[in-house]
Design a protein that fits this description.
A hairpin with a 2-residue loop joins strand 1 and strand 2. The chain is 37% helix and 17% strand. By secondary structure, the protein is an alpha/beta fold. The protein contains 9 helices and 7 strands. Helix 1 runs antiparallel to helix 2. The longest helix is centred in the middle third of the chain and has 20 residues. It has one domain.
């Protein structure tokens, strides 16, 4: 369902190499160490997302003295929000490589931020594999929902980020009501794309026994500077126990993450 920056996200996903860090109380931990070239690809994906494939219109309007690029990327942009957008794209690329997600199915409700000076909370990445010919009242073995939550830090400790990630994917914040409302938005998009409404309704089957549903996978992605890798790996021991199904916890180290916004539009 991603319309823009698809090629750029896929290019970044192809560079993703994950290291298995083992299991921690139901969390399957992995590590991705980005290099400078990977960061450049992430920034290019963000640029493509903001531009929205409007190069032809940008050139046309520039003849009239209208800078469309400035209109699309201008305004007040908090550094933290820009970094959040970039790290969410990085996380999406890692989920293509590590969690069986597909760019054709991904839904990213918070990227790019509508107001680049204001943050939006909630689910950052949704990936839905839905069989259009599946049974009306049951999910098939190959149908699944992957939910990603992404946080980043530029501080000297990662404990708050680990806590925030686990909280976001916990039952209080990720309630069945909140999930149902998010799926309703995706339902609208699927119907707009031509999927039969009755078939699209099957999205709501993921709400059934949500916290024990083996068709659902939750993925927490924490991004930090490479110097914080050891600190983050230590935080794996502090993750809350997940008894019902394996979740994913991904550590992503991003070189110079504190200044990555300076190279963004």
């Amino acid at each position: 369902m991603l319309v823009h920056a698809r090629a750029e996200i896929l290019a970044l996903a192809q560079k993703c190499t994950l290291t298995d860090l083992g299991s921690y109380d139901g969390w399957e931990a992995t590590l991705w160490r980005l290099d400078d070239d990977d960061v450049a690809l992430a920034i290019e994906a963000y640029r493509a997302l903001l531009n929205a494939g409007m190069d032809d219109m940008t050139a046309l309007l520039l003849e009239d003295g209208i800078d469309l690029d400035e209109l699309l990327t201008g305004g007040t942009a908090r550094d933290e929000i820009t970094r959040s957008d970039v790290t969410e794209l990085i996380a999406a690329a890692s989920m293509i490589t590590g969690d069986g997600c597909h760019v054709d199915r991904m839904h990213m409700p918070n990227v790019p931020k509508m107001a680049r000076g204001k943050s939006d909370s909630g689910i950052d990445v949704l990936d839905i594999r839905l069989d259009p010919e599946g049974s009306f009242d049951q999910l098939g073995d190959d149908e699944r929902l992957v939910i990603g939550s992404v946080k980043h830090t530029v501080g000297d400790s990662t404990s708050q980020m680990r806590y925030a990630l686990a909280k976001t994917l916990g039952s209080k914040e990720l309630s069945t009501g909140y999930l149902a409302r998010q799926l309703r938005t995706v339902h609208h998009r699927l119907v707009e794309q031509g999927l039969d409404r009755v078939r699209a309704n099957r999205l709501m089957l993921f709400v059934r026994d949500f916290y024990k549903n083996s068709a659902v996978r939750l993925v927490a992605v924490g991004c930090a500077d490479p110097s914080m890798e050891d600190d983050l790996r230590g935080q794996l021991n502090n993750l809350p126990s997940v008894p019902n199904r394996p979740n994913g916890f991904r550590i992503v180290t991003v070189p110079d993450i504190s200044s990555v916004h300076e190279d963004c539009p």
